[in-house]
Amino acid sequence: MIPLLGTILASDRASYQYLVESIRKFPPQPQFAQMIADTGFEVGEMREGGAWTDLWGGIACIHKGVKV
């Protein structure tokens, strides 16, 4: 649906197809939080509200990490 909307609204199907593919390939929140922790960042508890915060029902997410 997103590539079709990209074609109609922006005349740019390829960019919106790339967006769909990148969303599909992005790891789930716990896995991504662990990847951040594995690089030496302190992420807090490995749960929603700790290492990450979902926005708009999970459409977007903010991950937190601190390195001191």
Based on Cα principal axes, name the global outline.
elongated
Mean pLDDT: 87
- The assigned structural class equals alpha+beta
Number of strands: 2
Largest sheet: 2 strands, antiparallel
Proportion of helical residues? 40-55%
Total of helices? 3
The unreliable regions are none
Strand content: 5-15%
C-alpha-based Rg, rounded: 15 Å
Strand order of the largest sheet: 1-2
Spatial gap, N to C terminus: 43 Å
What order do the helices and strands follow? HHHEE
Supply database-style keywords.
68 residues, alpha+beta, two-stranded antiparallel ribbon
Describe the structure.
This protein has 68 residues and is α+β, with helices and mostly antiparallel strands. 47% of the residues lie in helices and 12% in strands. The protein contains 3 helices and 2 strands, in the order H-H-H-E-E. The chain has helices at residues 2-10, 13-25, 29-38, and strands at 52-55, 60-63. A two-stranded antiparallel sheet has the order 1-2. Helix 1 packs antiparallel against helix 2. The mean pLDDT is 87.
Quick structural gist:
Helix content is 47%, strand content 12%. The protein is α+β, with helices and mostly antiparallel strands and 68 residues long. A hairpin with a 4-residue loop joins β1 and β2.
Structural topology:
Layout: H1 2-10, H2 13-25, H3 29-38, E1 52-55, E2 60-63
Antiparallel strand pairs: 1-2
Helix pairs in contact: 1-2
